[in-house]
Amino acid sequence: MVSSALSGLLQVRRVLALRRWRSLWRFSALLSLSFAFIVACTSNPTPEADAPADAAGETGSDRISIGTTLTARTLDPADAYEIFPGILLHNLGDQLYAYEPGTTDLIPQLATELPTVSDDGLTYTIPLRDDVVFHDGTPFDAAAMVFSLDRFMQNAGRPAFLLADRIAAVEATGDYEMTVTLNSPFAAFTALMTFWGVTPVPPDAYEIAEGSFVPDSFIGTGPYKLAAFNSDSVKLDVNEDYWGEKPANGGIDIQIFSSAVNLYNTFTTGGVDVAYQTLDPEQISALERDADTGNWQVVEAGTTVVNYMSLNQKIEPLNDVRVRQAIAAMIDRNLVNERVFQGQAEPLYSLIPTSFEVYEPVLQEAYGDGDFEQAEALLREAGFSEENPFNFEIWYPSASTTRSVVANTLKESFETGLPGLITVTVQTAESATLWGNVDKGVYPSVLANWYPDYYDVDTFVQPFLSCETGSEETLCEVGASQGNGSFYYSDRANELVAAQQAEQDPAVRDQIIKDLQTLVKDDVPYIPLWQNKDYVFSQAGIDGVAIQPTQQFLMWQISKGG
């Protein structure tokens, strides 16, 4: 990361801290809201309504009104590391690369073609468009792109490590050509260039200085210009000078609701055109059930959000692989899906989401769901009995109603399936405390989630399985698996993670990823549990509403039908 050993250690700890905050902030912004169970949500409760957005429901307007419960802390691409500002930046700005709508196929956006990569995998040469201007009229060129990447890294915002840990140098090698040199080969680099933080900003309006951010405004190159940004609303106007496809609407008015109840009631009474993020399972079920009579549309999509249990191998008896395997065998994902999510999630049997072709349900094949016969055999082999039961603690952040229900569902299932052989204790801690202590080895197990930064399998293996410093005897002392609370250390895992990062041949890389999934199945440092589903609801006559396979929400595609 940096040259000296001491600086390297501090940098690793900084990265882990940033990743913990990423989990905490995204968790707070999305998942806690997503499944907070609201009493009587389907019986038309009438709390004080949120004030409507200026253009919401405006007759004859081709502007689209969107309701959400998400909030945006900042719109500065060098510091934004939460879901909602990421969605906004993808609509207000452009990145070097994007995905063909409806697919996971990488295409140039501000670049004119895919990068030319040197034989050693270290140098990426990227040609840029010459017909782009920023919202303030400033021409876009290689110097502006280099400035924006340097600013992203040097201003040290929350996502800065994504580039700072990878890039050795970035320079303009022509008016419309940029060359990036990496510290080491990284096969996912082009995918990383789709991250919302890579959107360029004009050098005259921003500065390079650590901690210098512009949270309340944004100047970019995208199809919309920021017209207003408040705590309860965001207004996007069409960028008439946009170089690419013009929006299919006259602008976007986003109303930020204080609760899922208010969002639900406003949508069902026609107060907003689109409801997206975040309704609870009861409300989603009601909207699905009443779609025909309510005359609205339901769009369902999978997500790349991975929910899992981390098992701390530094705490006995979780240092015994047989115990970890027994826990894996006891997990009944279908029970969790039905009881907690009313079928609105997807059982997950790998750390890699099902949307990737390389996904293999390795834990399902090895341990099944609720296989208490296998679990009993493993626990008894590990020395447990009714006279010496296995005492297991499950921890989760206290703000999460969802994880409370999941943890207690698992407790009931485990103790019913193996009465007298296992006792489960459910424990909670305030979110900042819990995430701050995970890498200290305080908790035997933690229910957590993972939001990928970009669409590539590396984001689901390196942050879980790699370790900078440690051994199979001491376990991970500094590194990603320490930050995730498992303290997993495997020379083989480190080798495979490094190999897949460097491998440019997709077929060879896929085989390495399969080998890593097999390691997770055998060693069980984590237990994948479920994968969220994403829902968006739109009124009749609203067209083009879709959730992309990469989880982006492209507002410029939405229109009002004739």
List descriptors.
562 residues, alpha+beta, D-Maltodextrin-Binding Protein, domain 2, Dipeptide-binding Protein, domain 3, 3 domains, nine-stranded mixed β-sheet, four-stranded antiparallel β-sheet, 21 strands, globular, disordered N terminus
Give an account of the 3D structure.
Helices cover 32% and strands 21% of the residues. It is α+β, with helices and mostly antiparallel strands and 562 residues long. The chain folds into three domains: 123 residues, D-Maltodextrin-Binding Protein, domain 2, CATH 3.40.190; 154 residues, Periplasmic binding protein-like II (D-Maltodextrin-Binding Protein, domain 2, 3-Layer(aba) Sandwich); 232 residues, Dipeptide-binding Protein, domain 3 (Roll), CATH 3.10.105.10. It is globular.
Helix content range: 25-40%
Structural class: alpha+beta
Rg (CA only): 24 Å
Work out the helix count. 18
Largest sheet: 9 strands, mixed
CATH superfamily of the largest domain: Dipeptide-binding Protein, Domain 3
Q: So what's the overall shape?
A: globular
CATH class of the largest domain: Alpha Beta
Instruction: Examine the secondary-structure arrangement and name the CATH architecture of the largest domain.
Output: Roll
Mean pLDDT, all residues: 90
Could you tell me the CATH topology label of the largest domain: Dipeptide-binding Protein, domain 3
Count of extended strands: 21
Strand content: 15-25%
List the helices and strands and how they pair.
Layout: H1 5-34, E1 64-68, H2 83-92, E2 97-99, E3 106-108, E4 116-117, E5 123-127, H3 142-154, H4 161-164, E6 167-174, E7 177-182, H5 189-192, E8 224-229, E9 233-238, E10 252-256, H6 260-268, E11 274-276, H7 281-289, H8 291-294, E12 296-311, H9 321-330, H10 333-341, E13 345-347, H11 362-367, H12 372-381, E14 390-397, H13 401-417, E15 422-429, H14 431-437, E16 445-450, H15 462-465, E17 469-471, E18 475-478, H16 480-483, H17 491-502, H18 506-523, E19 526-539, E20 542-543, E21 559-560
Parallel strand pairs: 1-10, 1-11, 14-15
Antiparallel strand pairs: 2-3, 4-5, 5-7, 6-7, 8-9, 9-10, 11-19, 12-16, 12-19, 13-19, 17-18, 20-21
Helix pairs in contact: 1-14, 9-12, 10-13, 17-18
